[in-house]
Amino acid sequence: MIDFPEISWASIAPQTVILITALTVLAIDLLPRKIERINITLTALLGVVIALIFARNLTPAYETDFSGMIYRDGVSIYLDQLLLAGTALILLMSHRYAQFHPIAYGEYTVLLLFASLGMMTISISADLITLFIGVELLSLSLYVMSGMDKSSLSSGEASVKYFLLGAFSTGFLVYGMALLFGACRTSNLVLIGSAILDGGAGTPLLILGFALVLVGLGFKISLVPFHMWAPDVYQGAPTPVTAWIAAGSKIAGFAALLRIFSLPGISFEPFGGYWAQAIWWLSMLTMIIGNAGALVQNDIKRMLAYSSIAHGGYLSMAFTANNTVGLQALLFYLAAYLFMTLGAFAVVIAVRRNGRECLSIPDLAGLARQHPGVAGLMAVFLFSLAGMPFTAGFVGKLWLFGAAIQEKYYLLAAVGILTTLLSFYYYLRIIVFMYMHEPQKDAVFDAVPASGRIAAGLAAAGVLALGVYPNLLWKVLAAHTNGL
Amino acid sequence: MIIASFIGLLYIAGFYLLLRRSLVRAAIGALLLGHAANLLIFVSGGLSAGAPIIREGEDSLISPYPDPLPQALVLTAIVIGLGVSAYLLALIHRTAEIAGGDDMDDLKEEE
Amino acid sequence: MKFRTSCYSLSGASAVLCIFAIWASMNLDAPYYLAFDWLPKVGLRISFRVDSFSLFFVTLICGIGSLVFFFCAGYLPGDKSRSRTLSILLLFTLSMLGLVLSDNVLLLFIFWEFTTITSFFLVGAKCEKKEAREAALQALLVTVAGGMALLVAILLLFMAAGTLELSSLEANRQLIQDSPLYPVILILIAAGAFTKSAQFPFHFWLPGAMTAPSPVSAFLHSATMVKAGIYLLARFHPILGETVLWHDLLIGIGAATMIVGASLALARTDIKALLAYTTVSALGMLTFLLGLGTTLAMKAALVFLLVHACYKAALFMVAGSIEKLAGTRDLDRLHSLGKMSPALWCAAALPALSMCGLPPMLGFIGKELIYEAKLIAPTIDELFLLIGFTANALTVTAALLAAVKPFIPRTMDSPPKRKLTLPLLAPPIILGIVSLACGLFPTWVGDNLLEPSFQALKGEPSQIKLKLWHGVNPVFILSVLTLVTGALIYWIHSYFARMVSVVERWSSPFAPERLYAQLVKRFVQFASLQTRLAQNGSLNFYLTVTLCFASLLLAAAFFSLPEKAVDLSLLIHLKTSLIILGAAAAAVLSIRAQSMLEAVLLLGVVGLGVTLFFVFYGAPDLALTQFLVELLLLVLIASIWSRLPAFRPDTPKREKRRDLFAACILGVFLSYFVLQAVFLNEHNAISEFYAQNAATEAFGRNVVNVILVDFRALDTMGEITVLAIAMMGIMSLLKTRKTKR
Q1: C or N terminus of chain A, fewer CB within 10 Å?
Q2: Which residue among C110, C545, C711 places its CB closest to the CB of A228?
Q3: CA A321, CA A314: separation in Å to the nearest integer?
Q4: What is the distance between the alpha carbons of residues C733 and B92, in angstroms, rounded to a whole number?
């Protein structure tokens, strides 16, 4: 008899469920009979919900599993839940979007699930190669998805740009990983950590390896100066895909950074200074360029692209601070960011005027008159993005800035706060248009369907719940980060 | 040394081609970069003769043997590279059809 | 009339609350605390403190609020967005109450921001006008900037004192004042207060905000919201006050604001703008008094708060009624209103008297106290006395201009009488009567409202009794002089106004509103420039930038490396060298390939070289895979061969050379690091683990295969999924073609 080694299948249950769901949807899609969109959406949603239930019931284990490939700690459970919640919201949005745009919906849904699978692979990986595979899964799916709107030329353009620049940056990621491998002779992150602690590894190579990994991941979270793809791709890609690039891909990027830079046992003592300094610069640049760029945009998706760049800057402050408060702040802000960004995109998708997408900011003029509810939700998301009290954005920013100030990074916090001030200008511009402008001539907003309302409503509930009662998440975070 | 220079050369050629405006050239550049990366991982595992195959009647590898792990990794990388390259080719193909050429700057949106 | 009913009920509720606050203030012995934990990690607690000082503000807010809601019932009907305005007003009232009741500074900040946002919506209420929208945004940006300063100050306070409760901050006063952060904290908090309370040089947003409907101006921009800054300074006086910096900063800014506001007021012809500038001046006065910080000055500040709230809110409501009556707010065109509506005349006159500081109004007592405080303050210059005097005199003139001039007939013919509705008349009259009553019974007000709140603020009784008549003393003489001077200036006010306008025009390049506009403009310019430059849509450019940054990074790492010597004596077999050289040559040639066929063939050669390399270095699996992949790719290329675009002549030479240069730098660095990596060869535990256990645990002899399908099966699973995705992508791309044709 062969005795099977003990493997805790439960710890990858959410990932498995998503994979199975993706395959099921693929199978349904391949049936000769034409399948209603709603069935595909419901199947996928069901899978996501089951995965979410599995993820909720996981208990963190603070050791590697599957021959050192995965590491199911509290952070990964938390991130998985976030990503699954995001996937559910995106599914709801896509359902509406596909009604008006020629998208092969079955394939699209499968790819969406694969992208989420990639993100969740990143969040549990304890090995550079597993992480790399996660990145590839997610990237490739998103490349394909961003080119899926066959009716639009800019969708194709977005896809090409995203792909080429993405492949380019993945090159850096691979190179960095190879150097890390060369320096530590292992691809396992925990072992890399102990190699660093032993000090036996060649430090300069390590720095370089980490730096190149940072370049590669910097692309994923669009840190300046690796952000150049974002505005064009955000604008061109189908809106739900843009939303998932903005929220999911960014969360995954930060998950990867968390995996690589803060797994237990990995200490940055030997080169903590370099690291904090590099991120300090990137975060500084990102906040300034991102916010300045958003200031002059007229296209909503482009504006949100810059806004998402800017938020990458705020989030990466946590790595400069590199303390427990910072990491908790990062995890909290990721949740806040997910809900507010997805919410804003959900509204952009849900609101259509005279049968067309409202893509420029003036298109929203007078929305509050015709759809006060949706306009109110949008206002909630924008206020949260700007960091108004009682929204998740405020608590998150406060937490992040607090972490930076605690470590005496005053300039960084000051720039963060000043750029937040700038951001009020462009977020409120949309509110001004929605609330204070008359609708343009013979502009009639179409009815907002239930799926759009549900998606935006759920996101708003998240934003407000986290803003009004942050302890809700704080307890979870405290439990999940005690292994850090 | 020679290997290192070779990898370097591959990188140079790859980057240079990637920077061309022609999408096809860029694609070739990307493929070259792929080779470079694979070689790099392989080489960083150390070079040695022999193959990591356990002989009949033995329980483990007999020294000297090449490190099997990087080989496994490179194998993964090659296969993923295949997927990516194939997609790239299809993408170029479609872009050429839509834009009528392979100049990247033709892709700029009209402003 | 549903709208009216809601106005009346809100008004009634506020009135009840106001009376309750007065009652509570009379009967409250010690502060009452109420606290919940919110997010203790960042010092955020929901904690309220009810003491008499807070209750004083509650009284003001609810009292004025009640009348404003009542006024709304007469003013707002006919406005399209009236319900929205009303509900935002309610929201504002709640946040204002929260602001003055919070004990946690962060909570206070939150309510502070809420008042800013509600103010933004209220200023922009008449949104069809462009000026209204711009004014709203301007007001918002200025006050939010201050709010951000306040936030930083709060975070620094937390660092310095470890707590954010006002009550415990007071206990830690010494700790904070000794901290090196103290000046920064003070300046940032002052910046927050100054922007909110429209102090020079941030005063310009307040007159701009006069595009708001009159009830809003009466409520937010005269009586309550702009006082939030004053409230903050007063609250922080026991914590940060009584230092030289505090003294100089507040007195200097306060005096400047006083005089600038009062002078500019006279040059305005719009009643509301004029009133707004006098508000600025009055706020300057309050800041000044807080800067003095003596017992008398603090008491005077409290009295003046009440005085000002009563008369200014009333006058703004009158301005609103005038607009309803005459259809304009332009002072040059308004006259004979007294004949049109004697009741309004009466409603305007009482508050105006209080504003002038005539006995027996409360304004008189306020002014007396202020003069007294200035006269006996030990530390101030005569200059400040003069400034205060001038500002007061100009305020008198402004009062006459706003509340007397429009009512005086200019021609003999009498215009038809018009009746105004009760809600438009009653609130200002009530406020006037309150001013009068407080003036007549100063002891009651002083003992029951002002004295407890002073005690709550300073922790000790003031021993100052409010009295209407002090006898003829220097203070009284100053008061009389003020009145006379004010009246005289009224006589020549047109010359004065012209003078102010000239000075204003001359100094306009330096005016803060211009600087603000310039700043915004410049920033937008910078932003669009950077976006145009960086985001030009060219993929090529994006790649180059990324490449350059990566090179920079590598260069930095290279120069930080300690050991640069590398052992170059790695043995290489002859045959491998040959293979490598061949492949390298192919790679170099591929750069120059002129036709597609050439390029693809060269690529194949490189691939073959790599394959052979794998063969010679003990990686048969790799070689096999690589070979298959190469073949597959060739097949793929061949299959779409005819549809691929033709090779075109390449870009200009200069560009090529630039790219080659960048690529070379990067490549050289990279190969250098490869060398570094190659020379760190030691076998490591994990690989040995595979070597040892492949056969025993996984029953495979090809270790690489075993790793892939057993130990790292999950990775392989992922890898297959990646391939599947690529396939789906390709399918989706090819399908496009079909639909297109």
Answers
A1: N
A2: C545
A3: 11
A4: 10
Backbone angles phi, psi at C476, to 5 degrees: -65, -40
Q: Please confirm whether the linkage preceding C360 is cis (ω < 30° from 0).
A: yes
Give the model confidence (pLDDT) of C390-442 as tens digits.
888 888 888 888 888 888 877 766 667 777 788 888 888 888 888 888 888 88
Of the listed ranges A60-64, B107-111, C104-108, C717-721, the one predicted with least confidence: B107-111
Tell me the CA distances in angstroms from C385 to C258, C285, C308, C382, one per residue in order. Answer: 12, 11, 20, 5
Give how far B107 is from chain A: nearest CA, Å.
6
Distances (CA, A) of A47 to A10, A14, A24, A113, C394: 16, 9, 9, 10, 74
Rounded distance between C-alpha atoms, residue A472 and residue A465, angstroms? 8
Q: Could you give the 3-state DSSP secondary structure of residue C29?
A: coil
Which is nearest to A161 in space by CA: A93, A235, A59?
A235
User: In chain A, which residues have their Cβ closer than 8 Å to the Cβ of B35?
Assistant: none
Alpha carbon distance B50, B101 (integer Å): 48
Is A422:C526 a contact under the CB 8 Å cutoff?
no
Q: With contact defined as beta carbons under 8 Å apart, do C673 and A179 qualify?
A: yes
The first and second tokens of residue C531, run together, are 């976006």
Return the SS3 of A4. Answer: coil
Comparing CA positions, the residue from A247, B103, A105, A144 lying closest to residue C725 is A144
Which of residues 24 through 83 in chain C touch A, CB cutoff 8 A?
Answer: 37-39, 41-44
What token pair was written down for A99? Answer: 């009604």
In a 10 Å sphere around its CB, with 0-12 CB exposed, 13-18 middle and 19+ buried, how is residue C405 labelled? Answer: middle
Where do the domains of chain B lie? Answer: 2-49+67-100
Output the six-digit token pair for A9. 């299948």
Residues of C in contact with B31 (CB under 8 A): 603, 633
Answer whether C552 touches A (CB < 8 Å). no
Best residue of A295, A297, A328 to probe chain C, by most C CBs closer than 10 Å? A295
Residue C144's identity, in one-letter code, is V
* Residue A71 host element (H or E): strand A70-71
The single-letter code of the amino acid at C5 is T
- The backbone torsions φ and ψ at residue A264, rounded to the nearest 5 degrees and listed phi first, read -60, 145
Task: Name residues of chain A where pLDDT drops below 70.
Answer: 1-8, 62-63, 67, 199-204, 262-274, 479-484
Cα–Cα dist C141/C116, whole Å: 9
Chain A residues with CB inside 8 Å of B83's CB? 140
**Which pTM does this prediction carry?**
0.82
**Pair of tokens at residue C479:** 């008061």
Assess B13–A contact: CB distance below 8 Å, yes or no: no
B2-49+67-100 placed in CATH 1.10.287: yes
Interface check C635 vs B, CB under 8 A? no
C24-43 tens-digit pLDDT: 888 887 888 888 877 766 66
| Tokens matching residue A140 | 């490739």
ipTM of the complex: 0.81
Radius of gyration of chain B (CA): 19
> Which of A174, A185, A229 is most worth mutating to test chain B (most B CB atoms within 10 A of its CB)?
A174
The token pair that represents A60 in the structure block: 């963190």
Q: By the CB < 8 Å criterion, does B32 face chain A?
A: no
Please name which of C401, C408, C356, C393 lies closest in space to residue C488, comparing C-alpha atoms: C393
CA dist., res. C51 & res. C59, Å (int) = 12
Interface contact A225, partner C, CB < 8 A: yes
Task: For residue C233, give both structure tokens.
Answer: 């300074």
pLDDT, tens digit, 9 for 90 and up, residues A188-237: 887 777 777 776 555 667 777 888 888 889 888 888 888 888 888 998 89
